[in-house]
Amino acid sequence: MFKLIQEPEDNPKDLLKSYRTQNILMQKMRLLHTAFDGIKLTNWHDNNRELPNILRGSICEFGGRLFETNEDITLIDNTNNSSMDLRYIKLKLIQVDENAMNDYLVVEVVGSNSNNDIFPEYDYDNRGFYVSENGILKEKYLRISMKYSKALGGYVDKKYWNINDIMRAGVVLKRHTVNLSAGTHTFNVPDIVNSITIHMTSGGGGGTYGKLDTIGVDGSSGGKSEISINGKVITTCTGGKTGYFNRFDAIPGEGGIASGHGKLINGVSGMSKNGGNLEPHNTTLAKGGNGGNGSNNGISSAGGGSGAAAIVEITREMMAGSSRVQIIVGSGGRGGTNSNNHGAVDNGDRGQDGSAVIEYFSRG
């Protein structure tokens, strides 16, 4: 919540205390600015799909009074309505008593459809988007919005709303994506772009052959995926391990490991017969990377582990004057093969290739 910042008394009994209170209030006023009042939001980058949160020390003006939060506020989206694609941040006034000394603001995430049907008109007298009841200010909307996209896995198209009309102030950002398959790639970052985000998965490990009366050949692990800037690797996703036979049984392959810079997602180990499935854990835009299944024929077999995944934001500062980023996308490991005469039915499946998606935004 936002608590009311104490104001000096009209007829102060203690001048020193009153001056101190006044000075504190003036210092807080300096934090106010047009776009977000004085509220500091996390996750407000073009490439960030997380719901924003409010940081401690944020200041908000409401009806001429200042409120402050001394703790981080984790926002929660409880709209639960897929038709409400737009999201806003609303501040609601809670009046505790008649003297208004203990009033506070609670923060809510609210939804609307594309017609902006709940966003209030701009109140020129109070300089904000307010909802009033019988002339009393009840709610205030921040001048920002975002969209929830299930397909893109989160909150996108984060905007600052103009004062006079509910249209975006400035230029709309255009989203671009580049899809990469298994192999080695070099991407030249456009000059007009401040950052890019790379989503990637590594290759899945191959499944084992079916154990019958002869010795077979184990499969191979999936290839790693990695990102390099100026010859230095910043993120690595190792491939899933292949399933294999020890002296007595088939052993499932382990999942790949993600390390380095970015949001890291480790792979999933294989199981008896089935390869590790990365998909339920994969929040990236990249696909693939599942482990290959073991053979359904024979006494026993095991699946390969899945590859790992990562979401990596690369800024101009990280590139240190360079405009090239090298991306290696790992391929799937081969399945194990049995040398008897039953043919392909005894072979394990090949692991899936990894992939990568480069995402960036440009103006215009």
Q: Could you explain how this protein is built, in words?
A:
With 364 residues, this protein is mainly beta. It has helices spanning 15-29, 316-319, and strands at residues 2-4, 59-62, 65-68, 86-94, 104-112, 122-123, 128-133, 136-141, 144-149, 154-160, 173-180, 183-188, 195-201, 216-217, 225-229, 232-237, 244-245, 250-251, 258-260, 263-265, 309-315, 324-329, 337-338, 356-363. Strands 1, 2, 3, 4, 5, 6, 7, 8, 9 and 10 form a ten-stranded antiparallel sheet that branches. Strand 6 and strand 7 form a beta hairpin. The longest helix has 15 residues, at 15-29. The two termini are 38 Å apart. Mean pLDDT is 82; it is low at 163-172.
What is the secondary structure topology, with strand pairs?
Elements lengths: L1 E3 L10 H15 L29 E4 L2 E4 L17 E9 L9 E9 L9 E2 L4 E6 L2 E6 L2 E6 L4 E7 L12 E8 L2 E6 L6 E7 L14 E2 L7 E5 L2 E6 L6 E2 L4 E2 L6 E3 L2 E3 L43 E7 H4 L4 E6 L7 E2 L17 E8 L1
Antiparallel strand pairs: 1-3, 1-5, 2-3, 4-5, 4-8, 4-9, 6-7, 7-8, 9-10, 11-24, 12-22, 13-21, 13-24, 14-23, 15-16, 15-22, 16-19, 17-18, 20-21
Q: In oligomeric terms, what are we looking at?
A: single chain
Strand content: 25-35%
What characteristic shape results from the CA principal axes? elongated
Question: Which residues form runs of ≥5 with pLDDT under 50?
Answer: 163-172
**How many alpha or pi helices?**
2
